[in-house]
Amino acid sequence: MDAFIGILTIAWGFFILYSSLFMMKKGDYKSKSPIGVSGYFELESLFRLLSRVPWQLVKVLTVLIGLSFVTFGTILM
Predict the structure, then answer these.
(1) More exposed terminus of the chain, fewer Cβ within 10 Å: N or C?
(2) Looking at residue 53, what is its pLDDT?
(3) What are the phi and psi torsion angles at 13 (to 5°)?
(4) 55-76 helix and 2-18 helix, angle to the nearest 10 degrees
(5) What is the pTM of this model?
(6) Is 74:6 a contact under the CB 8 Å cutoff?
(7) pLDDT digits (tens, 9 = 90+) for 40-49
(8) Rounded distance, CA 77 to CA 75, Å?
(9) Residue 10: partners with Cβ closer than 8 Å, 6 or more residues away
(10) For position 74, what pLDDT does the model report?
């Protein structure tokens, strides 16, 4: 079971890395929706806060999240 979860986590990490490095453009890192529309106020306020920092920093954070998924999946296996 640990190997299965590890493989899924590694695959998810590679998907995050691929999409953040090759698929996402500058405008994708900015939140354009008003706060309170989806009902998840905490996530919307976090995205609004992240949209104030430079997009390069958000891209670095996204890559680090992908690498952490890959690392965690490797540890699980």
Answers:
(1) N
(2) 81
(3) -65, -40
(4) 160
(5) 0.71
(6) yes
(7) 677 677 777 7
(8) 5
(9) 69, 70, 73, 74, 77
(10) 93
DSSP output for 7-76: HHHHHHHHHHHHIIIII--GGGGS--SPTTSSS-HHHHHHHHHHTTS-HHHHHHHHHHHHHHHHHHHHHH
Position 33, amino acid: S
* CA 38 – CA 12 distance, rounded (Å): 24
- Tell me how far apart the alpha carbons of residues 41 and 45 are, in angstroms, rounded to a whole number: 6
State residue 24 phi and psi, 5-degree precision: -85, 140
- Tokens 């994708």 locate to 28
> Tokens 């986590």 appear where?
9
